[in-house]
Design goal:
Strand content: under 5%
Number of strands: 0
Oligomer: single chain
Helix content: over 70%
Largest sheet: none
Distance between the termini: 94 Å
Radius of gyration: 28 Å
Number of helices: 4
Shape: elongated
Length: about 170
Protein backbone atom coordinates (compact mmCIF):
# COMPACT_ATOMS: atom_id res chain seq x y z
CA UNK A 1 0.00 0.00 0.00
CA UNK A 2 1.47 3.34 -1.02
CA UNK A 3 1.76 6.32 1.32
CA UNK A 4 -1.06 8.33 -0.30
CA UNK A 5 -3.50 5.43 0.01
CA UNK A 6 -2.41 4.81 3.59
CA UNK A 7 -2.99 8.49 4.37
CA UNK A 8 -6.44 8.39 2.69
CA UNK A 9 -7.44 5.35 4.74
CA UNK A 10 -6.29 7.01 7.95
CA UNK A 11 -8.21 10.17 7.01
CA UNK A 12 -11.33 8.10 6.30
CA UNK A 13 -11.05 6.35 9.66
CA UNK A 14 -10.66 9.71 11.39
CA UNK A 15 -13.69 11.08 9.54
CA UNK A 16 -15.74 7.98 10.43
CA UNK A 17 -14.84 8.45 14.09
CA UNK A 18 -16.04 12.06 13.83
CA UNK A 19 -19.24 10.79 12.25
CA UNK A 20 -19.72 8.29 15.09
CA UNK A 21 -19.22 11.13 17.57
CA UNK A 22 -21.81 13.34 15.80
CA UNK A 23 -24.35 10.51 15.62
CA UNK A 24 -23.72 9.69 19.30
CA UNK A 25 -24.65 13.27 20.16
CA UNK A 26 -27.73 13.01 17.94
CA UNK A 27 -28.65 9.76 19.69
CA UNK A 28 -28.45 11.55 23.05
CA UNK A 29 -30.68 14.32 21.65
CA UNK A 30 -33.35 11.76 20.74
CA UNK A 31 -33.14 10.15 24.18
CA UNK A 32 -33.47 13.57 25.81
CA UNK A 33 -36.31 14.52 23.47
CA UNK A 34 -38.45 11.67 24.79
CA UNK A 35 -38.13 13.02 28.33
CA UNK A 36 -38.94 16.52 27.11
CA UNK A 37 -42.02 15.32 25.23
CA UNK A 38 -43.27 13.59 28.35
CA UNK A 39 -42.67 16.76 30.39
CA UNK A 40 -44.33 18.97 27.77
CA UNK A 41 -42.09 22.04 28.11
CA UNK A 42 -42.27 24.02 24.87
CA UNK A 43 -39.06 25.97 25.57
CA UNK A 44 -37.12 22.77 26.22
CA UNK A 45 -38.58 21.26 23.05
CA UNK A 46 -37.37 24.24 20.99
CA UNK A 47 -33.91 23.87 22.54
CA UNK A 48 -33.90 20.15 21.80
CA UNK A 49 -34.91 20.75 18.19
CA UNK A 50 -32.13 23.30 17.84
CA UNK A 51 -29.57 20.80 19.17
CA UNK A 52 -30.87 18.11 16.81
CA UNK A 53 -30.68 20.46 13.82
CA UNK A 54 -27.09 21.35 14.73
CA UNK A 55 -26.17 17.66 14.95
CA UNK A 56 -27.87 16.92 11.64
CA UNK A 57 -25.99 19.75 9.92
CA UNK A 58 -22.70 18.48 11.36
CA UNK A 59 -23.55 14.95 10.22
CA UNK A 60 -24.20 16.19 6.67
CA UNK A 61 -20.89 18.06 6.59
CA UNK A 62 -18.95 15.06 7.90
CA UNK A 63 -20.77 12.78 5.45
CA UNK A 64 -19.80 15.01 2.52
CA UNK A 65 -16.13 14.86 3.52
CA UNK A 66 -16.37 11.09 4.00
CA UNK A 67 -17.93 10.62 0.55
CA UNK A 68 -15.12 12.63 -1.06
CA UNK A 69 -12.50 10.57 0.79
CA UNK A 70 -14.15 7.34 -0.31
CA UNK A 71 -14.18 8.57 -3.92
CA UNK A 72 -10.48 9.40 -3.68
CA UNK A 73 -9.72 5.95 -2.26
CA UNK A 74 -11.78 4.27 -4.99
CA UNK A 75 -9.82 6.22 -7.62
CA UNK A 76 -6.48 5.41 -5.94
CA UNK A 77 -7.39 1.70 -5.92
CA UNK A 78 -8.55 1.91 -9.58
CA UNK A 79 -11.95 0.50 -8.63
CA UNK A 80 -15.04 1.23 -10.66
CA UNK A 81 -17.21 3.41 -8.43
CA UNK A 82 -20.28 2.63 -10.56
CA UNK A 83 -20.19 -1.01 -9.45
CA UNK A 84 -20.20 0.00 -5.77
CA UNK A 85 -23.43 0.93 -4.10
CA UNK A 86 -23.59 3.09 -0.99
CA UNK A 87 -24.11 0.17 1.41
CA UNK A 88 -21.23 -1.94 0.11
CA UNK A 89 -18.56 0.74 -0.25
CA UNK A 90 -17.00 0.30 3.19
CA UNK A 91 -17.17 -3.48 2.83
CA UNK A 92 -15.21 -3.19 -0.41
CA UNK A 93 -12.68 -0.81 1.10
CA UNK A 94 -12.18 -3.23 4.01
CA UNK A 95 -10.64 -5.65 1.52
CA UNK A 96 -7.85 -3.24 0.60
CA UNK A 97 -6.60 -1.67 3.85
CA UNK A 98 -3.87 -3.00 6.11
CA UNK A 99 -4.90 -5.11 9.13
CA UNK A 100 -5.12 -2.18 11.56
CA UNK A 101 -7.11 -0.09 9.11
CA UNK A 102 -9.46 -3.00 8.38
CA UNK A 103 -10.11 -3.41 12.10
CA UNK A 104 -10.69 0.33 12.60
CA UNK A 105 -12.97 0.59 9.55
CA UNK A 106 -15.02 -2.38 10.73
CA UNK A 107 -15.37 -0.88 14.23
CA UNK A 108 -16.54 2.45 12.79
CA UNK A 109 -18.93 0.77 10.36
CA UNK A 110 -20.42 -1.36 13.13
CA UNK A 111 -20.77 1.62 15.51
CA UNK A 112 -22.41 3.74 12.81
CA UNK A 113 -24.82 1.00 11.82
CA UNK A 114 -25.84 0.45 15.45
CA UNK A 115 -26.25 4.17 16.14
CA UNK A 116 -28.31 4.75 13.00
CA UNK A 117 -30.63 1.85 13.81
CA UNK A 118 -31.10 3.14 17.38
CA UNK A 119 -31.73 6.70 16.15
CA UNK A 120 -34.31 5.45 13.67
CA UNK A 121 -36.09 3.47 16.39
CA UNK A 122 -36.01 6.40 18.85
CA UNK A 123 -37.31 8.74 16.17
CA UNK A 124 -40.21 6.37 15.44
CA UNK A 125 -41.05 6.13 19.16
CA UNK A 126 -40.95 9.90 19.58
CA UNK A 127 -43.13 10.33 16.49
CA UNK A 128 -45.68 7.90 17.96
CA UNK A 129 -45.66 9.84 21.23
CA UNK A 130 -46.15 13.13 19.37
CA UNK A 131 -48.95 11.70 17.23
CA UNK A 132 -50.85 10.42 20.25
CA UNK A 133 -50.30 13.71 22.10
CA UNK A 134 -51.57 15.63 19.09
CA UNK A 135 -54.64 13.35 18.93
CA UNK A 136 -55.48 13.98 22.60
CA UNK A 137 -54.96 17.72 22.26
CA UNK A 138 -57.29 17.77 19.25
CA UNK A 139 -59.93 15.78 21.16
CA UNK A 140 -59.59 18.12 24.15
CA UNK A 141 -60.04 21.18 21.93
CA UNK A 142 -63.12 19.58 20.32
CA UNK A 143 -64.54 18.83 23.76
CA UNK A 144 -63.96 22.39 24.97
CA UNK A 145 -65.49 23.71 21.76
CA UNK A 146 -68.62 21.67 22.39
CA UNK A 147 -68.83 22.98 25.94
CA UNK A 148 -68.56 26.59 24.78
CA UNK A 149 -70.84 26.22 21.78
CA UNK A 150 -72.72 22.94 21.98
CA UNK A 151 -74.95 23.54 18.95
CA UNK A 152 -78.47 22.28 18.51
CA UNK A 153 -79.51 19.31 20.59
CA UNK A 154 -82.77 18.61 18.70
CA UNK A 155 -83.54 18.18 15.03
CA UNK A 156 -86.36 20.06 13.24
CA UNK A 157 -88.52 16.97 13.71
CA UNK A 158 -88.20 17.24 17.48
CA UNK A 159 -86.02 14.15 17.73
CA UNK A 160 -82.75 14.15 19.69
CA UNK A 161 -79.67 14.84 17.55
CA UNK A 162 -77.46 11.73 17.81
CA UNK A 163 -74.10 12.94 16.46
CA UNK A 164 -71.42 14.85 18.40
CA UNK A 165 -72.69 13.64 21.77
CA UNK A 166 -70.23 13.11 24.58
CA UNK A 167 -71.53 10.48 26.92
CA UNK A 168 -74.83 8.59 27.12
CA UNK A 169 -78.38 9.68 27.72
CA UNK A 170 -79.37 8.49 31.16
CA UNK A 171 -82.98 9.59 31.00
CA UNK A 172 -85.15 11.02 28.21
CA UNK A 173 -87.59 12.49 30.70
CA UNK A 174 -86.87 15.80 31.98
Amino acid sequence: MNNELHFLYDSLISMLRNEVDVYSKLHKCFLNERKILAGSSVDELYESNSRKETCILKARMVEEVRIKLVERIINALNLDGKDLNKDRTLSTLLLHGDDGQKRDLEECRSALRSLLMDIHELNDRNKTLLDSSRFYVRKSIDFLGQLISPGATYLNTGRLKANNLNGKIVSREG
